[in-house]
Write a structure and sequence with these properties.
This protein is about 40% helix and about 20% strand. The chain is of the alpha/beta class. Helix 6 packs across helix 7 and helix 9 runs antiparallel to helix 10. The structure holds adenosine monophosphate.
């Protein structure tokens, strides 16, 4: 496995990789969610490239960029085990030199949900993912359903800008108690970690209501909020039942619905979702 720090080395390495190339972009501190993406890429492609880059442009000024967990050595050991061909782990100055002056932005859907709570976040994501796609030139790129809006935004970017690759969405991997795996889970103390189970419970409640025939999203949101509020440590950013294409809030569920939420436990902000229908 090659570990690569510069864009030019990555471009040279790419020329030597047998196609198709599968690509998994990450911010590192790898867990079972990331590994599931890598395994899917390994199954479906001849070569696999993983990037590890904590992208400063997708963090707001008061967010956790500095604090975000990093363990490059541990990550490399995991990826070696998984049979990855190349890991691209550049420094921020390599990706954004002093004179960097461009951005890639998807409009509309990036203003909703996460975009509403984290202004500029998706612009940072699409800018870096676009650069990474240009550098790695994969045939397929793998993203997690855990970040549902992110994958919707990336699909839209790829379609709108005619990017020549396939975006593949992989299911959310969870801890035994249902908490979605996340690099940020280690921020939580034991009480917060225990409380955080309510996220998955509230999503399962929504799914149960839907399966019992409930289609009124007001009733679903209300029950989810009520359940989450039984946890004293939980601070809700949003609880949403939206159209998965437009991310507009739905009144009634007639087709598919994306049930998503963002909740803070102390300083840790968690997101999760399920798709109904
Ligand atoms: P991150 O390192 O958090 O930027 O995540 C890198 C990729 O892994 C993204 O496509 C995420 O959606 C995906 N991912 C993160 N957590 C999970 C999870 N629990 N299950 C599946 N995919 C995940």
């Amino acid at each position: 496995m090659k570990t690569i720090k510069t864009i030019s080395e990555m471009q040279d390495c790419r020329k030597t990789l047998a196609e198709p190339v599968g690509f998994v972009p990450t911010m590192g501190y790898l867990h079972g969610g990331h590994i599931s993406l890598v395994r899917k890429a390994r199954e479906e492609n001849v070569s696999v490239v993983v990037s590890i880059f904590v992208n400063p442009k997708q963090f707001g000024p008061n967010e956790d960029f500095e604090k975000y967990p990093r363990d490059l050595q541990g990550d490399l050991e995991i990826l070696e085990e998984e049979g990855v061909d190349a890991v691209f782990a550049p420094e921020a100055a390599e990706i954004y030199p002093q004179d960097f002056n461009s951005r890639v932005e998807v409009l509309g859907i990036t203003q909703k949900l996460e975009g509403n709570c984290r202004p500029g976040h998706f612009r940072g994501v699409t800018t870096v993912v676009n650069k990474l796609f240009n550098i790695v030139r994969p045939q397929r790129a793998y993203f997690g359903q855990k970040d549902a809006q992110q994958v919707i935004v990336i699909q839209k970017m790829v379609k709108d800008l005619n990017m020549n690759l396939e975006v593949i969405t992989c299911p959310t991997i969870r801890e035994e108690d249902g908490l979605a795996m996340s690099s940020r889970n280690i921020y939580m103390n034991p009480e917060e970690r225990q409380s955080a189970i309510v996220l998955y419970r509230s999503l399962m409640l929504a799914q149960d209501m839907y399966q019992r025939g409930e289609r009124d999203t007001g009733a679903i949101r209300k029950e989810m909020v009520r359940l989450i509020k039984t946890e004293e440590l939980a601070r809700i950013d949003y609880v949403s039942v939206a159209d998965p294409a437009t991310l507009d809030e739905l009144d009634m569920i007639t087709g598919k619905a994306l049930v998503s939420l963002a909740v803070k436990f102390g300083k840790t902000r968690l997101i999760d979702n399920v798709v109904l229908g």
